[in-house]
From TrEMBL, chain A:
Oligomer and partners: Dimer of large and small chains.
Name the UniProt record assigns to this protein: Acetolactate synthase small subunit
Pathway: Amino-acid biosynthesis; L-isoleucine biosynthesis; L-isoleucine from 2-oxobutanoate: step 1/4; Amino-acid biosynthesis; L-valine biosynthesis; L-valine from pyruvate: step 1/4
Keywords, comma-separated and alphabetical: Amino-acid biosynthesis, Branched-chain amino acid biosynthesis, Transferase
Gene that specifies this protein: ilvN
Protein family according to the UniProt entry: Belongs to the acetolactate synthase small subunit family.
Record carries keyword Metal-binding: no
PANTHER family xrefs: ACETOLACTATE SYNTHASE SMALL SUBUNIT, ACETOLACTATE SYNTHASE SMALL SUBUNIT 1, CHLOROPLASTIC
Taxonomic lineage of the native organism: Bacteria, Pseudomonadati, Pseudomonadota, Alphaproteobacteria, Hyphomicrobiales
MF annotations from Gene Ontology: acetolactate synthase activity; acetolactate synthase regulator activity
Family annotation (InterPro entries): Acetalactate_synth_ssu, Acetolactate_synth/TF_NikR_C, Acetolactate_synth_ssu_C, ACT-like_dom_sf, ACT_dom, AHAS_ACT, AHAS_small-like_ACT
Amino acid sequence: MTQPASAYFMEERHDPNETHTLSVIVQNEPGVLARVIGLFSGRGYNIESLTVSETEAQKHLSRITIVTTGTPMVIQQIKNQLDRMVPVYRVVDMTLSGRSIERELAMVKLRGVGEHRVESLRLAEAFRARVIDASTESFVFEITGNSSKINQFIELMRPLGLVEVVRTGVAAIGRGAEGM
Amino acid sequence: MSDSNSHDPNQMTGAAMIVRAMKDHGVEHIFGYPGGAVLPIYDEIFQQSDVQHILVRHEQGAGHAAEGYARSTGKPGVVLVTSGPGATNMVTPLADALMDSIPLVCITGQVPTHLIGNDAFQECDTVGITRPCTKHNWLVRRIEDLAKVLHEAFYVATSGRPGPVVVDVPKDVQFATGTYHPPRKADVHVSYVPKTKGDPAQIRKAVALLANAKRPVIYSGGGVVNSGPEASRLLRELVEITDFPITSTLMGLGAYPASGKNWLGMLGMHGTYEANMTMHGCDVMLCIGARFDDRITGRTDAFAPNAKKIHIDIDPSSINKNIRVDVPIIGDVATVLEDLLGVFKAEAKKPDIKPWWQQVASWRARNSLAYKKSSDVIMPQYAIQRLYEATRGRDTYITTEVGQHQMWAAQFYGFEQPKRWMTSGGLGTMGYGLPAALGVQVAHRDSLVIDIAGDASVQMTIQEMATAVQYELPIKIFILNNQYMGMVRQWQQLLHGNRLSHSYTEAMPDFVKLAEAYGAVGMQVFKPSDLDGAIQDMIKVNKPVLFDCRVAALENCFPMIPSGKAHNEMLLPAEATDEATAAAFAGGKALV
Ligand SMILES: Cc1cc2nc3c(=O)[nH]c(=O)nc-3n(C[C@H](O)[C@H](O)[C@H](O)COP(=O)(O)OP(=O)(O)OC[C@H]3O[C@@H](n4cnc5c(N)ncnc54)[C@H](O)[C@@H]3O)c2cc1C
Ligand SMILES: Cc1ncc(C[n+]2csc(CCOP(=O)(O)OP(=O)(O)O)c2C)c(N)n1
Ligand SMILES: [Mg+2]
């Protein structure tokens, strides 16, 4: 196929996308999150989920966990771009290391009476979700797990009167004795 | 009590700390423009004489001047501008410096901390606006942090892959008193420690490839210039002992001398036929401090399809970005080349590549830079050749604007040394060359500094002629005046059915009168026979000159790799007939 005449070279790329979870240790200074997010939006990378919090207060370190998708070349580029930012200490690809645990927390609100209420409680138990608020016609469940477990739970709740969902996004940590 | 305090020489205001930090980092010149939010700093500048301030006429001029200063010296360029419009006017040079890896330290004034976020007079979110166009930036809210941030700023701008940084200082912090400390190790940003030494195992792999190459090429870039004079020396030694052909990007010109026998000329979209064909046909490519830019690669799936690629770069994000390479080596060019040469000399012999050189010779014989000579009008290529002949023996620095004249300068001016060539490559900023020449001249008072300019570009920062006159900077603005935005017109001719939409330079100023209005010297030539004499006159004048060189209006820049084509599908000048051009550019409507 001929491309439109242009000063740029337009090519389609067909590499399949992969999903990776990255842990990024950053200096907890003003604007650091804006820098990371700006990098993703500025360079057209995807953010599926992002969590951030200070993790070592005395060293002023925060940990950002990002779930992103892209071709292997783009994922590598994302890691390199993050790594060269001045306030970034380390970037670890939790997916590549293959030895990480990922968890997310969701709160799921349901409205319903009768059979639906009973069914939702039964499922919640199977998923180890806890009731953290209840009224005569509603529940709020709290559930933690990996993203696919949470997705599954939400899908099951949908026909039972799902009102809204809030999720924290993924936090990830390596298995075993070593820290990152 | 208060006495002992007032005698502590390290107790000072924020404004004084800024000037003091500049001195401690060896800054001799800064480029700037005053305003409400930086007046305390200007007051400090007034009361000392170690740091000389150059007053420009527009903040963009300060930024490009600092870029020229930095590129020609290897030291960081320093800029001082006020809040709001002062800072926003700096955005273009910051973006330019980021693209071309130029170290700049830019101090911006900011409204007092308690007013930040209130839409105060001349407030803008400087760190927000400049975040994507700096290597890093800081808003300093406390006097206690100022000294450390200033030292960090110099460190970040100049280490690893160099780039621009901004330090935004609110006016109350400039007035506040605190304790200054001189630069020390601890101010090195702990999380930013670029790797300079290449992995020995990778270097061994590279040497093995080089030693067994049959059709090698060295593709060098701006990173060699960034790395310093030692890198250029080692590059020359490498070429000497391997006898490999070498080409370079626009940004790397001069690292290897244009008179060297292995030189192929520049590669890429407007590079020579031999450079691009050698790249296309090679079996081993050694990329040194270049970033596989799209002006170089053309179609990435057809880029050097049979080559094993080695890439030396200090920035891991430059590696495998556009082109997948076989042997990445992360490190500083000079450091890596030194190790690589060591291994090569100890363990390898230069391969026999005679047949390859014969092939290269046949490409060279195509004479891809040929152009039609004329005795009636000055051909732009001819003008550059004559300028080169007249200045080659001298201590000369060349800057450019952006357009056809820039490409002709790259093709026809022979650079023998690094840091002699200042051009806006990545961002392609029209208006760069005149202020950049100013900055170069500030650093090299006795050298000949020439901006090879276009008639359209030069009008973007022409106001800096006043700066040149004020500081007696005898820069020479050599305008290849084709009365068009030639490069735009060329694309319109090639891609948009010759509809020349808004690319004619209407209402052209009289450059001679304009020069005189500024107190500079104006010159104009029309005829090839007058050119040499006029150039000599220009060189002799010890004043800024606007040289209006009227050239063939409709000449286009070749060779050229049409969009979406590979290196072996170049359009050569002799072949650039209307039909060939139409075929090469066949396709739908242009997107840009
Ligand atoms: C109108 C126009 C036309 C153009 N046409 C062409 C053309 O035909 N051919 C051409 O070549 N260019 C052309 N350009 C320029 C082009 O856009 C790019 O700016 C240029 O090709 C990039 O050069 P480079 O790869 O050397 O990279 P640079 O931008 O100079 O980057 C340097 C690389 O070296 C690395 N580096 C920096 N310091 C070090 C160090 N100390 N050690 C190791 N690595 C280091 C950096 O990380 C980076 O990857 C054109 C520009 C314009 C405006
Ligand atoms: C600030 C800016 N605006 C627009 C462009 C797009 N552009 C690239 S080259 C060019 C024309 C340059 O004309 P001139 O300076 O006369 O140079 P010539 O090509 O004629 O040699 C333009 C408008 C640019 N590079 N920079
Ligand atoms: Mg022009």
